[in-house]
């Protein structure tokens, strides 16, 4: 009997079709691998640029609280080390002496950060003039230069001196902004979603609200910045650069995200549960409060976390409402000028000095770590509470 | 007294009043029930009923006063508003308590109040849109009073720089007509960067989606999808840094290798990086669309003896086309409005060119730069940001509407 | 060949000899059926659940074989084994042999795409492609290279639509999308689409279950006519339909073939109690 089903091997037409099949599949696999390669390259790039910022070079110096140091801190250091020690490290000495007059005339051994160029030299990122290089290498030999974990990066605010700059004030600013965003967008978002999903009659107004929300979610974020500038700052007089105006602006942006995810979570609760509750004589609100909301809470929280993570990475609208000010001290209220982590990254990225580049990348690493944690939390929350009806 | 303090004081006064109202209202209902009267609703509901009567009118007065003073009709002192609100609260409380009678349907009244509360929350989204439209339109109108719409739309020279001197009060030194607001070069830059971004994102995103929905095993898909989604969670400022510090030098090096001249703020680099940012949008939306093509259509094709790729290219993709187009449009809309990447990696010089290795500037870059200087708020350069924003808003809104329409038609077809 | 037509054997061993028949043999004035497709000791698992238990069944050339049985009995699963549609479902495992003209279709050297051009299929729910009526039919011939020129394709489209009994209804609107036809027309379009490939076997998975009675009658009539040229295997829920269109009927239950016989015998004189219970409506 003629073997017909395996005859394709000799049929050029079918062979060509199978070649196309293989090629097409190869294209799709390639596309995915290109995307993966980009992700790997991206993270490798950022991490390799930024990890050095978590270390800093320190030098052990004898601080001499002499008379001249009471006016200018630099004079507390031996003259030949003044090029090496960070200016910012000894800036506080006059104040220190004023507050504790008994310190005058004493000497102290202390580890202080070095000037950023020397720090960069030890990280292999910048060259030094030969004499200076000779000197620091000798100091290193002598064991008075060391490299330690850079705690100051997490505890200090911004600084014009790269060796002293940290993300603390920006982190506090981010927390304030997100707090305002949450306080504004969460209640209004959840209430809107409950109205639309559980109460709203199917009329023109409801449809208008729905179309609106979907469109708001796709409006470019910079437009929200323009809105914040025109409405909150110019009309309502909310202080420019404050966490309040930033938080409200981001709140308007996050609102549609929370509404959409809350609606999805409410919709996932099957109708028989509602009908059962109605049959027991619950009012509509009681049905929602006692039955639907508790069941959909994990979904609502997941959506909220995702919305906040997005708000946390947002920069453009905050620039428009002035949140890129130079903020060395952490703000103490939502009415004060503040900056946020991504805006701090932007500010550092615009710095021409090379030492700020590792700060920028390190700021990015911290930001990405927080965002990935937030998103992973959302995913885990969803996995844990996901319920199939 | 600041707005914050006034609000705080008002809430501080209303909170104990609310507690009092609840206790009194519930107490009255309980008292009545103790004497054997049957009440329509539960005692707690009467408690909340009096809270509503106490709080709602008072808050209404406070909000009305705030709105009126913002609009500028009246400007009552904040102390006055505070005192009047609290007085209204007390009157409301008294009325609410008196109104508690067996036949009063407290539960139904509460339900209505809650419904109103929910509705007003939902209306905030509409108010946001209205606020966007009006605030931007209003400022844009001020801009168009000084610059003709025609010049703005068709002019090919964007050079607001001299208005800087005007704003500084030295406008006489430069004379008339030295600042130009022809937005064509800005939109050219925006469309160039968008085109490059979509040329990067569409093939990678769509082909990845095809692999994940058609070829991948469940495990591969469960692994690949979240990894791609990582790209969507990276803040744009990070992409901007990546474009400016890493991608741009690479492109310049490659161009130099081929003997080409590339600018260090070339538009290609932000375009490619923006494309990377958009990949997950294209891939996840296309993946959804491809997955919602009914299995019966696939089987129909297989039963005719098609290979897998023939089924995909000739049956599934044509059927999924509206959805893929809609994903594409959403991607375009994101690229048009993207700000940080271009602010950090693209140029600031308006430049009309077809060469992606040259520097170009975009609409969003100019919005940012015209609002971050120390300019007077009503200088034409500052106001131009709103005119550009208005166009951006209209374009992205239309793209989104078309995209939503396409998706809805698609869903209807296969549901 | 001692086998009588009215007493078709049900065991694989007995039918093996018939599989070798290539031509029609005449016996007592009646045609002894030629075996077109045959399943031997076919077992199938979805993951850990066994869905088919050692199925032995043969389907005769130019006959309609109906597969009946209660929901979940495995008849659709079996049908999909015949052109390897189950390959598309992950976690399906299969043992045993299915042959087309004696050739094992599960042999590793078999080209599935080729197989499906011999064994076409029509589905429960009409699934026209979202293309024009013309393109729905011309698509596969163009793909397989059996119709290349425009005129060839025009002829093929016309003849396929005529054989599917749809020509008169759509001749003047071949450019409209196939999805705009009525349910019954869509199903006949799908049949025309299958015919256009010029298959030898057509599998039909409850082809009329989504149609109204009038459309059902049209499709049944069509099946009756197609029988002259094609081997048809049809899964149906509707016993009357099986009785009307099929020459042979197999009763499936719990993944097994309980009884297989020519339709008249099976319906009037079933050997098995379960068959009788089912056809008299006692379960299912």
Explain the overall architecture:
The complex is a heterotrimer of chains A (389), B (415) and C (284). Chain A has 2 domains: 53-96 and 106-150, no CATH class; 168-385, MetI-like (MetI-like fold), CATH 1.10.3720.10. The model of chain A has no long low-confidence stretch (mean pLDDT 88). A 3-stranded antiparallel β-sheet of chain A has the order 2-1-3. Chain A contains 14 helices and 3 strands. By secondary structure, chain A is mainly alpha-helical. In chain A, 61% of the residues lie in helices and 6% in strands. Chain B is mainly alpha-helical and 415 residues long. Chain B has 2 domains: 3-135, no CATH class; 180-414, Orthogonal Bundle (MetI-like fold). Chain B is built from 15 helices and 2 strands. The radius of gyration of chain B is 30 Å and the shape is flat. The model of chain B is unreliable at 163-168 and 170-176 (pLDDT under 50). In chain C, helix 4 packs across helix 5, helix 4 (133-144) packs parallel to helix 7 (183-196) and helix 5 (150-163) crosses helix 7 (183-196). Chain C has helices spanning 12-19, 75-81, 112-118, 133-144, 150-163, 167-170, 183-196, 213-226, 239-245, 263-268, 273-279; strands spanning 25-27, 30-32, 35-46, 49-60, 64-68, 92-100, 103-104, 119-122, 201-205, 231-235, 248-253, 256-262. In chain C, helix 8 (213-226) links the parallel strand 9 and strand 10 (231-235). Chain C has 11 helices and 12 strands. The chains are: A mainly alpha (389), B mainly alpha (415), C alpha/beta (284). At the A-B interface, helix 1, helix 6, helix 7, helix 8 and helix 9 of A face helix 4, helix 7, helix 8, helix 9 and helix 10 of B.
